[in-house]
Design brief:
This protein is mainly alpha-helical and 274 residues long. It is built from 13 helices and three strands, in the order H-H-H-H-H-H-H-E-E-E-H-H-H-H-H-H. It has a three-stranded antiparallel β-sheet with strand order 2-1-3, with no helix packed on it. The protein starts with a helix and ends with a helix.
């Protein structure tokens, strides 16, 4: 569905705010529930089509009920808050407009939460297991253990990750990592590069007092420890409120982004210190 199509179906700020408040489409007023149902069903049908299915393929039980249960039952990893509460928090701290949040974070065609919802929906209804497979050219393809015969896909596809909920899409994790680094930089008044350096040296066990590290941080040994402690304390706090931090790929993506944020020469010198 195009962005224009999403906007045409958008149920409205008031309807979505009511959904956040009462936790179910059925519990909303008719004025809100009718457009909400239309938008959610359309988004889930569109995602099914992108995966090569239609409503009859999966039985198409009430998608709205599953949509509501997904957000109500799924919690964030430490506080065990419903996912909906986490999303409301995220929308507030990022100062996002409701329409941008719904059409992007929830229903975005490439990276919206709708992809995970529909993956979960198919798995629950059909008992199918999703696999992310890599072609010989490095690109990836989604296949289903019971919907498509993986063995018949040929040697160009090699099964990689098998956990459909946590390993299929690193894009959202990467975006959250970028937001995380920006927040850390702002909260402790350092540059993004310095934040990345602290996280990198802690993860890779590079001595904090190494001359290369101190030069990049522009401080002495004592101050370096103070800076590290501030960064790590802020990092722990941010991770408690970050839903994708529970993803098995999060640590790898965080390290990748921190490594990529370092100047080439600095990264080369740090590699020699490990």
């Amino acid at each position: 569905m195009s962005d224009a199509g999403k906007e045409d179906l958008y149920a409205g700020d008031a309807a979505w705010q009511e959904w956040f408040d009462v936790c179910s489409v059925a519990g909303c007023s008719e004025q809100s529930s009718v457009p909400l149902r239309r938008e959610i069903v359309s988004a889930m049908r569109a995602q099914l089509a992108r995966m090569g299915f239609d409503g009859q393929d999966v039985g198409f039980d009430d998608p709205v009920a599953f949509f509501d249960s997904y957000f109500t039952l799924r919690g964030h990893r430490k506080a065990k808050k419903p996912l909906k509460a986490y999303l409301a928090y995220r929308m507030k701290v990022e100062n996002r407009k409701m329409s941008d949040f719904v059409c992007g974070t929830l229903f975005g065609a490439r990276s919206g939460r709708i992809r995970d919802i529909v993956l979960d929906w198919i798995s629950v209804l059909k008992g199918w297991r999703a696999h992310s497979c890599r072609r010989s050219d490095g690109s990836r393809q989604l296949v289903w253990e019971h919907g498509t015969d993986i063995d018949a896909l040929g040697p160009d596809l090699a099964a990689a990750e098998t956990d459909s909920m946590s390993r299929l899409d690193r894009a959202q994790v990467a975006r959250d990592v970028e937001v995380l680094l920006a927040r850390l930089a702002e909260s402790v008044s350092l540059t993004r590069e310095q934040i990345a350096l602290i996280v990198y040296v802690v993860a890779m066990n590079v001595p904090l007092t190494d001359a290369v590290v101190l030069k990049a941080l522009k401080c002495g040994k004592s101050q370096a420890y103070v800076v590290r402690d501030r960064v790590m304390a802020s990092l722990r706090k941010e991770l408690e409120m970050l839903e994708t931090a529970s993803d098995v790929t999060f640590g790898d993506v965080l390290l990748e982004r921190c490594s990529a944020a370092l100047p080439v020469e600095l990264h080369r010198e740090l590699e020699g210190r490990r």
